[in-house]
Design a protein that fits this description.
Strand content: 5-15%
Distance between the termini: 29 Å
Shape: globular
Number of domains: 1
Helix content: 40-55%
CATH class: Mainly Alpha
Number of strands: 6
Number of helices: 9
CATH topology: 3 helical TM bundles of succinate and fumarate reductases
CATH superfamily: Peptidase C65 Otubain, subdomain 2
Structural class: alpha+beta
Length: 201
């Protein structure tokens, strides 16, 4: 990943591995995924990774595009149909951060709209305090409850591959369960990057 960039170009999956790594998890990961985009670890990585991956997937899907509200970014990309533009826009701090802020507010609004459900999962004194302190503030790492709320708000399915834990195997979380994921994220040491599956022949 280039110094200063917020989202990297697609890199071979091995770029994530320490040299001479032969762990089962890494083997498993590289058998399922070919490339990765690294996202800067600044506390906003989940939102940035999710939004980039989501917009990248909808650039190739006209119907989904009509449901997107980050219109300006999408229109610029559609004009030349290119991931290059998406990558450039996401590496402009102001544009990238404003998209992250938008997603944080969307997550917060969804949590509050569905308060009866989500209040059971939040540790803060109440849901409003949680949203103000944990969700809406930039650089605050996201929690499972935030991921669930955002997947519902955007009506998308997220596949999270986790390297955490002592088990030999990767852990797979599909949110919501049972749906077909439109994007894949790698969770490793409290950080999210974007994964691209190997094409099945």
């Amino acid at each position: 990943m280039e110094a200063g960039s917020l989202v990297s170009c697609r890199e071979d999956i091995s770029s994530l591995f320490p040299e001479h790594t032969s762990g089962a998890k890494y083997k498993d990961l590289s058998s399922q995924f070919s490339t990765v985009r690294q996202v800067r670890g600044d506390g906003n990585c989940f939102y940035r990774a999710l939004c980039f991956a989501h917009l990248e997937s909808v650039l190739h899907n006209a119907r989904a595009l009509q449901r997107i509200s980050v219109v300006n970014v999408v229109e610029q990309c559609q004009a030349d149909e290119q991931e290059d533009t998406l990558l450039r826009l996401f590496n402009e701090q102001m544009t990238s951060d404003s998209v992250v802020q938008y997603l944080r507010l969307l997550t917060s609004a969804h949590l509050q709209n569905q308060a009866d459900f989500f209040c059971n999962f939040v540790e803060a004194p109440n849901l409003l305090v949680y949203c103000h302190q944990e969700v809406e503030v930039m650089a605050m790492e996201c929690d499972h409850v935030d991921i669930l709320a955002l997947s519902q708000a955007l009506d998308i399915c997220i596949h999270i591959v986790s390297m955490e834990g002592d088990e030999e195997q990767l852990a797979h979380h599909v949110i919501p369960e049972g749906a077909e994921p439109s994007l894949h994220l790698l969770y490793q040491t409290s950080h999210y990057n974007i994964l691209y599956p190997r094409l099945r022949h």
